[in-house]
Design brief:
Structural class: mainly alpha
Largest sheet: 2 strands, antiparallel
Radius of gyration: 14 Å
Distance between the termini: 25 Å
Number of strands: 2
Shape: globular
Strand order of the largest sheet: 1-2
Helix content: over 70%
Strand content: under 5%
Order of helices and strands: EHHEHHH
């Protein structure tokens, strides 16, 4: 469910700082050896950036399907295509399967999709910077 909140630029700046730390950590680990951890962290970065973007618009997601609603909402921004949304939801599902069911994410998934993940992260950052 998406609800209205007061936009909070200071909170967004704080979230961006935490994301920077998560990125540094994620870039520093061996992605072949720790593909599940790296993939989960990339998902968390995307999720937090999306949350920050919505917060700038005075919105936030809540409830059982908050993460899905969050990603699905990004289609309302011109920068994100339906294909981007489908890909982010696939990453969300992979992260949920690893976090809740103990399923590993194959190193080939990350190797094949890392470029796209990083492009989505940059798209989100650019959109946030425009709004800050």
């Amino acid at each position: 469910m998406i609800i209205k909140v007061t936009p909070d630029k200071e909170k967004v700046k704080s979230i961006l700082q935490l994301i920077k730390e998560r990125e540094e950590f994620t870039y520093s680990i061996d992605h072949e050896k720790f593909s599940t951890n790296a993939s989960e962290n990339y998902y968390e970065i995307i999720k937090e950036l999306a949350s920050a973007l919505l917060l700038l618009d005075g919105l936030k997601t809540t409830g059982e399907y908050a993460h899905k609603d969050l990603i699905d909402y990004l289609v309302n921004y011109d920068e994100f295509t339906e294909s981007d949304i489908l890909f982010m939801n696939d990453l969300r599902i992979k992260r949920n399967n690893s976090a809740y069911d103990g399923k590993k994410i194959d190193p080939s998934y990350l190797a094949n999709n890392k470029k796209r993940i990083l492009e989505l992260i940059e798209k989100l950052k650019k959109k946030i910077k425009k709004k800050l």
